[in-house]
Design goal:
4 domains, Alpha-Beta Plaits, Beta-Lactamase, five-stranded mixed sheet, five-stranded antiparallel sheet, alpha+beta
């Protein structure tokens, strides 16, 4: 459980205490939850443990009852005591052996104080071990995700990139073998630990055989890698989880992430579902257009299928995929030579290089109508889809692609906000569109400020109209420290934080900083002289975990709750 010398010193003290309570020699054996002996102190008795004792230990730690009577152990008597925590969770067992005489028949009762303390000690050690395990698993997962994402940012051929992903999985997940099989694309890759079967093909066939025989169990995790009908279904196979510290739920979540990255590698040039060029290919054309002399005369169209997630939930993912494929066919048919791409799950983009504003808007409106005229049937229900479209002029220069895409996306979001299934053109005079674009550009700075602890609190005093009140009241105001060291007002960052679901993290940071300030200024105790008001967002109020966070922080900092006041705006209260 920890370094052997330190552990033995701690438990030796327990042994001495228990012998003093017995008033006679005694031997003690401590077992963990797996019935493995991790400490013993025989104190000169050196009894030979009987089979009856060993069987009783295994039976108890497998969920059986503790023996009601003392156990026979040669010339000695033994008693087996379960070690449980305050929640009655079994952490191990203590076997007590003492000379067989009447005074020692109820050994556990004689040692009750020491046993209770030992139970708490063991529970704490398991908590520490579990915390260390969780930290190690979290670190391994983060490293795996980081290395895979870094790999995808580099330029690799498909085969070597997939092989490296499998190697990283085996390394950071602590498993024996990782394999990827997509026969329709001729992909059969295996990464296995040193000392595995020399014949990789035979080892891979063994994994596939286990999958086909549905023998996966707890040790083999399989995830489908779906592709177009021509490629068929593939499989990501991860084996050897019994030696891994990852929980089953976490393993499945990581496996889903890995499958998404496998798709990313496969889709470097062509989107498997729609057959359209992938965004990287499109982005090259967009960059060329933004650097052309007539860049300002070109336009970018951003298309987003409305409520695709609802369609997936109500009609199944096959219906959603059919919609995506249908829109892709429509774009290929009606957009001619204009470059088109699929950006994300439900979003597309098109580069319009030789159309006027009116022509671009007409093409967008025709696309909305044609798509909505289609009738789809799924699960015996018929529905008509819709698509929202945003159009923006290209922004010339090096940063033009990102800026142009952001503007078109903002216009598309405005189309959704204004009823969906319609077209909006980006205009600087439209304040709601401009604000949305500002938020897109600022959200990265907000995330950086949160990760770098660049939120600053100010206290605004509130004075009573009637004199004589001793209570000092103030409201906490939050500011963000910019990259240049300048304090930014809320208007510069709160809108982006609200739009991109960062307000709860902001609120948590404000609560923690406020409590730290109260402690540092000597206002933590309930003196009745100070009260601090903290504003909360609707995102925090809607999260049932936020109250537990506040309680835990108040307790951790030792601040009297009556020194705090939480405020919400009328808008938040109504919402």
């Amino acid at each position: 459980m920890e370094h052997a010398d330190a552990k033995d010193r701690v438990f030796a003290d327990y042994a001495s205490w228990m012998r003093s309570l017995l008033g006679s020699p005694g031997a003690f054996y401590c077992y963990d939850r797996r019935a493995q002996l991790f400490w013993r102190d025989r104190g000169g008795l050196r009894p030979a443990l009987s089979r009856e004792c060993k069987r009783a230990v295994r039976r108890l730690l497998r969920g059986g009852p503790a023996p009601a009577e003392p156990l026979s152990c040669g010339e000695h008597c033994a008693q087996l005591v379960p070690l449980r925590d305050a929640r009655d969770q079994l952490h191990g067992a203590l076997l007590i052996v003492a000379p067989a005489r009447s005074g020692n028949r109820d050994l556990a009762a004689s040692l009750a104080p020491a046993i209770r303390t030992l139970q708490r000690e063991l529970a704490l050690r398991y908590q520490l071990l579990e915390s260390r395990r969780r930290v190690a698993v979290q670190a391994a997962e983060e490293k795996l995700l980081h290395h895979i994402d870094a790999l995808l940012r580099e330029s690799h051929r498909t085969g070597p990139a997939l092989a490296e992903i499998l190697r990283l999985c085996r390394l950071y997940l602590g498993i024996e073998r990782a394999a990827l099989v997509i026969d329709g694309r001729g992909i059969r890759l295996l990464s296995q630990a040193p000392g595995g079967p020399a014949d990789a093909g035979e080892s891979l066939d063994t994994l596939l055989g286990a999958l086909q025989a549905q023998m996966a169990g707890d040790d083999l995790l399989s995830m489908p890698v779906d592709g177009p009908a021509s490629a068929g279904r593939g499989w990501l196979l991860l084996q050897g989880w019994r030696r891994s510290n990852f929980s089953a739920a976490r393993a499945r979540r990581v496996a889903r992430f890995i499958v998404s990255r496998v798709h990313a590698v496969l889709e470097r040039e062509t989107d498997l579902l729609t057959g359209l060029p992938v965004f990287n290919v499109f982005e090259s054309r967009l960059a060329e257009a933004c650097n052309a002399r007539d860049a300002a005369d070109k336009r970018l169209m951003y298309l987003d299928i409305d409520q695709l997630h609802v369609i997936n939930e109500n009609y199944g993912r096959d219906a959603g995929d059919e919609l995506l494929q249908s829109l892709a066919r429509l774009l290929r048919t009606w957009f001619g030579s204009h470059p088109v791409t699929r950006i994300s799950s439900d979003s597309f983009a098109a580069l319009l290089e030789d159309l006027s504003d009116a022509e671009a808007q007409q093409l967008a409106e025709d696309t909305c109508r044609r798509f909505h005229r289609q009738v789809f049937t799924a699960r015996d229900k018929r529905f008509r889809p819709s698509v929202s479209i945003g159009i923006a002029p290209l922004v010339p220069g090096e940063h033009g692609p990102a800026a142009s895409l952001a503007a078109a996306q903002v216009a598309c979001r405005a189309a959704k906000d204004r009823g969906a299934g319609r077209v909006e053109v980006y205009q600087q005079a439209d304040q709601s569109i401009v604000q949305r674009l500002d938020d897109i550009q600022r959200v990265g700075s907000v995330r950086d400020a949160l990760s770098e602890d660049r939120l600053v609190l100010l206290a605004q005093p509130i004075f009573p109209l009637k004199p004589g009140r001793a209570l000092r009241y103030c409201e906490v105001l939050v500011r963000m420290l910019g990259d240049d060291g300048e304090l930014l007002p809320p208007a510069e960052f709160l809108s982006a934080a609200e739009r991109y679901q960062l307000m709860e993290e902001v609120d948590r940071r404000v609560v923690r900083l406020t409590l730290q300030a109260l402690v540092a200024t000597g206002h933590a105790e309930a003196s009745g002289r100070v009260r601090v008001a903290i504003n909360l967002s609707g995102q925090s109020l809607g999260d049932e975990r936020f109250l537990d966070f506040v309680r835990a922080e108040i307790e951790a900092h030792g601040v009297a709750p009556q020194n705090l006041c939480f405020e919400i705006t009328e808008t938040v209260a109504v919402a």
